[in-house]
Amino acid sequence: MRPVAYFVRHATTDLNDSNIFRGDLDVPLNDQGKKEAQQLVQFFRNKNFSKIYQSDRKRVRETIAPLAIAKKMKPATITDLESLNTGDFAGKPKSDENIKALKHYIKNPDEMIPGGETVQGFRDRVDPVLMMIIHHGEDSNHPTVAGVHGSILKELYRLLYGKIKSKAAVEPGGVVAIFKGSHGYEAIPVLGAKDKNDVHPGS
């Protein structure tokens, strides 16, 4: 199987280190995140892409920039790749209480997150873009690559497997590859997997 697309989770920010909801906040990478962005250049050194996509958030653009420069490609910015807008939760710690409160809206996707968006609205804007990125890579000689947020990766897994919690979960700066097989698409971590046993043996 050849990969048809790669989804890169944005690298580390101070809010990642503080375990705080990012949501719609536009925060830059910290020093660790900048190192992770440079590591992507080395990881992808022998790979060519048909197109590079990114969300319009600073943390994503700064993650993708070194790779785009190395490949001499201009990323296409897609606003619909923004993270789930967690509204009033943004900037708050990921405490058990806040996580439980946010899960209420995940279980009730048509309810508006205070100050944010509905989970269903998030899915409606994200899902067509994810499939467009995958299909473009599948129809091209080379895979696509997209810089995204953690919530986008969770939605990618839900879209492909019907579940939110995924073995495709990666740390900031990590990469999930999409492979097309006889049973459909498969999302597999190839860099920075939270569960090291999930890393594809060919990565």
Oligomeric category: single chain
CATH topology: Rossmann fold
Compute the separation of the termini in Å: 13 Å
Write down the overall mean pLDDT: 90
Helix content: 25-40%
- Series of secondary-structure elements, N-terminal to C-terminal: EHHEHEHHEHEE
Low-pLDDT windows of residues = 196-203
Can you list the strand order of the major beta sheet? 3-2-4-1-5-6
Task: Provide structural commentary.
By secondary structure, the protein is α/β, with parallel strands linked by helices. It starts with a strand and ends in a 10-residue tail after the last strand. The longest helix is centred in the middle third of the chain and has 21 residues, at 119-139. It is built from six helices and six strands, in the order E-H-H-E-H-E-H-H-E-H-E-E. A hairpin with a 2-residue loop joins strand 5 and strand 6 (184-193).
